[in-house]
Design goal:
Elements: E1 30-32, H1 36-46, H2 54-72, E2 76-78, H3 84-95
Parallel strand pairs: 1-2
């Protein structure tokens, strides 16, 4: 098995050539990361699988509508991130292996 990053330890620093300049700027648009559970509920609502959960259906339908509208109009970035690592580390920590 490959090396596992320990989230409790700081990342090692990497030296860079001295002629590199880094500028940090704010994004021109607001950014949003949706929790995986919300993304799953949106997908289920789109497939018609939340009919027995009216509160969840109402909430995620409205979130889906607003986020889609704002992203299409260029006013919002909805970030698609890799959460398998997050779940994997969380699993290890809770099982006592991490």
């Amino acid at each position: 098995m490959g090396d596992v990053l320990d989230p409790a330890k700081p990342m090692e620093s990497v030296s860079a050539p001295r002629d590199i300049t880094v500028r940090v700027q704010r994004a021109a648009r607001k950014a949003l990361w949706l929790d995986t559970s919300v993304i799953i509920k949106i997908a289920n609502a789109r497939r018609g699988e939340l009919k027995n959960h009216p509160t969840d259906l109402a909430r995620v339908t409205e979130i889906d509508r607003i986020v889609t509208e704002k992203v299409r109009s260029g006013r919002l970035l909805c970030i698609d991130s890799e959460q398998r690592y997050e779940a994997w580390v969380s699993d290890d920590l809770h099982s006592g292996q991490g």
